[in-house]
Every structure is written in C-alpha cells, then in structure tokens.
Amino acid sequence: MSSGRIQFLLGRLLKSILVLLAVVVLNFTILRLAPGDPALILAGEQGAADAAFVDQIRKDFGLDRSVPEQLAVYIKSLATFDLGLSFRERRPIATIIGERLPATLILTLTAFALSLLIGIPLGALAARRPHGMVDVALTTVSTAFFAMPLFWTGLLAIIFFSVWLNWLPSYGMMTVGAPLSGLAAFLDLVKHLALPASTLALFYISIYLRITRAAVLDVMGSDYVRTARAIGLPPTRIWREHILRNALLPVITFASLQAGHLIGGSIVIETVFAWPGIGRLAFDALLQRDYNLLLSVFFVSSVVVMAFNFLADALYVLVDPRIEAGASA
Amino acid sequence: MTPLLDIRDLSVALPRGSDRRYAVENAVLTIARGETVCVVGESGSGKSVLAQATMGLLPETLPITGGTITFDGQRLSGLSESRYRQIRGPQIGMIFQEPMTSLNPVLTIGAQIDGALTAHGSRSRAERGARRRELLELMRLPNPSQIGDRYVHELSGGQRQRVMIAMALANNPKLLIADEPTTALDVTTQKEILRLLATLRKELNLAVLFITHDFGVVAEIADRVVVMSKGHVVEQGDAGKILHSPRDPYTRRLIDAVPRLAPPIAAVRSNSDTVLEIKGLTKTYKGRSSLFGARRADVKAVDDVELSVARGEVVAVVGESGSGKSTLAQIVSGLLKADDGSVWLHGQDLAQVSRRQRRRLAPHIQMVFQDPFSSLNPRHDIERIITEAPIAHGVSAAKARSDMQRLLKLVGLDTNAAKRYPHAFSGGQRQRIGLARALILKPDLLIADEPVSALDVSVQQQVLELLADIRRELGLSILFITHDLRVAATVADRIAVMRQGRIVEQGSTAGLLRAPASDYTKALLDAVPGLQWEQNRSELATAERQPSKVN
C-alpha cells in the first residue's frame, strides 16, 4: 500500500474520532434539552417525593451540577472507557449493554451476512439479461419486500411459519427452561433466529439486489468493458476482472451504511419477535429518562457506525486505486 | 489480390421509431493489407456503426440485416460470439475515442495489457512480461519497465491512448480499427498519436480503418477515403482525389466547411473605445493539504493576464486543455473570483464590486456555453429560457416576448420555436437558442466558451457565420474561447495564445498566423492537422483565380 493511501486512512481515522466527539457532545446536550427530570422520575418510582430525597438522588448522579460540568465529567469518564451507572438499575452500564449486545449482534450480523450473500449475486444475475424473465421476476419480488413494512413482513412470517406450519418458534432467543447445551443449544438458537433474521434480511436483500443490478448494468455499458470485448476476453473473465470489481464500489457504500444500523436498526424486529436485544433497551431507557444508559447506547452505536465507515474507507482503498491523500472517493 | 477486409452491401437496421430505417445501408468498403482507409462523416452518418459491425460489437438493438463482412477470406457476419472472440485481438484490434473511460480504472495498465495477452493462447509469465515491455517500448511510452504498474488516472490523455493501442496490437492483428482516436486529445498530442500510428503501420504492415469527422486528420494519414452521410457511402476513392476534387456535392460542402487557417479579411481594430480591459489577472487554485504529509502544489490557473477587447472586436483566446482559458472566461463572466488583478468593463472594476452590484452588471456580460445539450434546462420551453433573464432584470413580460421574437429571427429560428422544449432542437439550433438567450440582454461583451466545439463541421460553419453576421449587425464585442486554431482564425480579429495560465503571445490574427513569435504558438500551428493539404488547396484556389500566372 502506498504511503498516500496510508495517509488517507490515517486522516479518515482522525476525522472519525473528531466526529465521534461531536456526536457525544450533541447527544448529551440534546438529551438535557428534552423535558423531564430523571431525579423526579426515580424518586416517584420509589414512592418518596420529598425534596431532600430528590436532592440526594441529584447529588448521587451528579445532576446537581451545571450542564457543561456534567458534560465534562461525562467525556472524561468516556475517555477512560467508563460508561458509568444506570440511574435506574444502579448497575454498571457496561454490564447491562454487555448482556444485550450479543443478542442484537447475532440477529443483525446474520441478517447482514444473508443480505450480502444473497442480494449481490441475485442483483448480478438480474443484470445479466435486463428485462428478461429472471430480471423481471427478481425485481418484482424485491420491490414487494422493499415496500412492505418490516413489522408486517414479520407478522406474516409468524402466521405462516409458526402458526400454520408450526415449523419455527415465533418469539425469544431460546427455548425458556430447556436444559440445552452444545450443539442442541446452538440449533435451538438457529431455530429462534431463523424468522427474525430472514425477515430483516429480506428487506436488505431487496436493496442490495437493486443496487448491484444498477451498478452492474452501469459498468456493463462502460467503455472499458467494450475495450475488454474488443481485445477478445471471454465473458467469464470480463465479469470477474472488469464488471464485478467496479460494480462493487456502490455496494460497499451501502453496506457500510447498513452496518452502521447493526445496533439501532432492528428495534422493530426485536419488538415483533420479542428478541432480547439492545433496541428494546434503548426504548425503555428513553421512557424512564435513564440518561446515562440512553447516552451509552447512543455512544456504542455511534462507535459501531464510525468503525464501519472506516472499514468501508479501508475497503475502498483496497478496491479503488484512485483514492489517494487529499482526493475523495 | 483479395482485400484484407471486404464489406459488401452491408445494412444495419435501426430500432423502430428512429428517424430512419437503417443506421448503415448497402455500404461497400474494402481495405487492402497495410492500407489506411479513413471513413469520414458527421454525427449520425453511421461511420461508428460500420466499425462496430466489423468488430462484431454491435448492440442487439442494431442487427445486421443484409450484406457480408469478409476478413482475410473468412466470413465474419453471422459468426458466433465465441468464434468472433478469436478474431478480436489476433486478427482485428480496435481503439476508441475516450482513452480515459476506455481503460479499467481499478486495474494497473500492465494488468490490462496482460489481460489482452492471456485472452488468446497461454504464454508463460516471462514471455508476457517481455512482450509487455516490447509493446510499451513500441508505443514510445516513458519508462516502459515501470509504467506497467501505473493506473489509468496517473497517465496523460496521450499516454492512455498509447496504452490502448498497445492493448489493441498485443496479439499482432492485421487490421486496426480506430474510432475517432484523437478527437478527445489536444492538438499537439493528436499530432504525436497520428505520427505513432503512421510509424506502427509501416513497421508492422498494419491496415488501418480510421473513423473520423476531421478532414484535417484525413489529409494527414489516409490512403483512401470513404465519405458517409446518413448511413450511405456517398463517395470513396484516393485521398488526394477526394480531398482536392471531391465529386459528390455533400463531400464538397463538408470540405468547404472546414475552417481555413487564414484570416478572411484583416479587420481593423478600433482602439478608440475599449469595452473590456483585463489587467494583471491572477487566479491560483490552492493545493489542498491533507491532515498528514505534504501539501499539494498550488496551480496558477490564470497568471498575470493582460488582455483587452475593443468595441466590435472579436478576440480569441486559444489554448490546450489546462491552459486556463476557461478559468479566464469564468472570472470575466463573474462565475469565479480572481485572487488579484482587475477586470474593467465601462470604467468599472468587476473584480472589486460587491456581489449585488455584480448581479446588476450581469446583463453587460453574457455567455454562450460549449455543450448545447446540458446548457438549456430541458423542463423549460424556449420562451421561458430566453425571457427569464430580462424579466428578472425588470423588463416587462410583453417587452421581453417581443424582444424574443426579434432575436429568434435574428439567430435564424422560426418564431413558433418559443413554445417548444430544448429536446425538439438539434445541437446547432440549441446553440442558436443559447445565443438568443445571451443577446436578449443587449450585452456589451459576449463570452463564447467553445461554442462550436460540440458541433459537426457543417453546423459549426453555420453558427460561425451567424456569429459574424450578428457581430456586424450589433457591433458586438466577443471574447471567444477555443482550442481550435482554425476556428479562431475564422472568427477573430486578434488571437491570444494561452499556456499554463499565461498568455504567451497575442496579436492580430493575420500577424500571429503568418509570423508566430513564441515557440509554443509555432508548435500549436504546426500541430494543426492537414496543413499541407490546406496549403495546396489555397494555392489551387489562387491558381484558379489567376490562370494567366500559372500558364
């Protein structure tokens, strides 16, 4: 890799960190601007609303200090990877998120992998004969899945596969109370995962299919593909060496956007399938004014977004030699 | 001897609903071994379709409906795709107009030449490496041992075209089809590529089918010429014959439309009244610095330029790509801000006025742009396009409409054009609309940025004549930006030659053409294709006018 490209990546990394800092500050201030006092809610839930108790709660969580001071404390603790305590559950937030994160990641990463592995080849297939039978069938079906709201697709899947056919469980992540271990536990997880993951994947498959199809068609019409034909390259090599690699560039862009949604993008699915993930956690924290928890969920998902954007930049650098320091993709 | 390529009565159908039934109709063409045949025609003549048909690269929407193509005794028309692949490369090579987009941006050029080599027969790695170096040397590319590791965006336009030629010739074809290979290149680069093709042709005994719209280029390289119009071959024969005494009226019109490199009439500059005065104008594009590492060098796009335009005068700014001529035009028109220097219009320095004042001065300077297709809003009708500006500057709608009627007539369009949309007009008509749009504001200065570069030569001639008429009629001052010295010579009273942001030379058109002072101007003039042909033509014309002297 040339030094120009390494410089480009270092620059992007630094920018990511700056953006992350800005996101943290913004999240923090916006949340404080929203109405609702966490101390009052906490005190109310514990049945004691006298002023002294509320003040004590404020003091315990540092809510008695000015907003800028609170922000400074917050950033300082973030810098030492300390996410703090949940107002409500009085447990370390890292632990709470740690409990929920795997469930969400299992769900979203499976959907992510499925959508890439199925969507891209189908898109390329559709582009081979534009407006042919295969293309029309694929684009019609994908439009349907793209247009259907996720919760609706999910409900249909439950009715069909769980209620009518009784093939797959419709909720949860594992069979409650079943003493399973090893392979059996894994299969149990796969069974529970099947419906939510494929519902989520169907949506993204439609998008990848269309992006890939459009990109492939675009590249197929390009001058350098004409050149490749003019030097007598066989079709398989034209596909491999000229079409696919160039057509993947817009797909990478979208994949990095989707990857950013790995944490926050599955709230609906988690709700429909009662999946014990982080999306539900954020929703509950919001209702309960659990600022620290909510901020931390935001923070973790921002980190994931940044990480995947950076990963996409790195991939671009590998795939597209035109990227150098100072140049943009 | 049987010809290498023999095209007989070839017809290629157009999709239903096109303006004519055939892209190419009953075309006949032969090329002997080692011969260079130029197919000349304007856009839509079917010349590129002919080339693609020969290469078997026609899209499915353009089927061959009649006739035969025979190459070296083998019938190509109707050949299966897999058999055709054995022809492309080892038998016929092809190069295209856009060297930038014709190469894959994500592969090194070495890998792409390698691709051409491995497409036909297996050679060892070492053999391929040797052949690649040999090809790059043959193309006179610098550093042939290292340039293979470069990517397309790291090469100049001329170098890219050399790589294209290397790929096309990698498997020793007997015929090279070149589809407008120098049209996208600067004139000095074009000259080098034409010279390279001439050398290769001799060294490799290569036959060349050269597609072009430019008779200057034809005069440089052709043994024989085939003239096409609307899908038909209207005339073919020896290059000398066709270039000097064309029989077909269409060919004659086409040749007559080629602008001469001699000024028509020496116009006298009225130095009393200066409309535009540019002094010390400078514009630097700052090199962007990345967060780490070195800053990129600054580029002086316009460097201390002094230039003036008198009332009623046409001044052409001539330069190759990257010379800064378009930046200059954009600064004068107010689309860009200069770093330093002044642009005086009517005693007011445009470089100093505020944005608001500049907007008020907008009617005094108007522009006509290069691309007639993207410079008119496709969703507005012609009336709206032309009257938008005067109405915005406070003219009543009724007055603007009557002005528009007058101007449509002036630019040679029917007044019922007003209610139609841009797509209903040809490129030349759109340039007329663009001109009417600019003139309706009664500008003191018209900036014409490559206004005829996108037009066919016969249309180009009409638009240039129109510009000359209007200028005489309205006493208009024009700053004419062009890359084409021939065009500059026909329209301009004075020419300024730009290179790397600087004006290297300026003077009266006649003087500059007769006795160029700077080496660069000499090189530019020398690179204009078809000079010898033009000289012979004008000598012939003089001889015809004065027969007694010849006798």
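qc> Confidence is low (pLDDT under 50) at residues 325-329 of chain A.
qc> done
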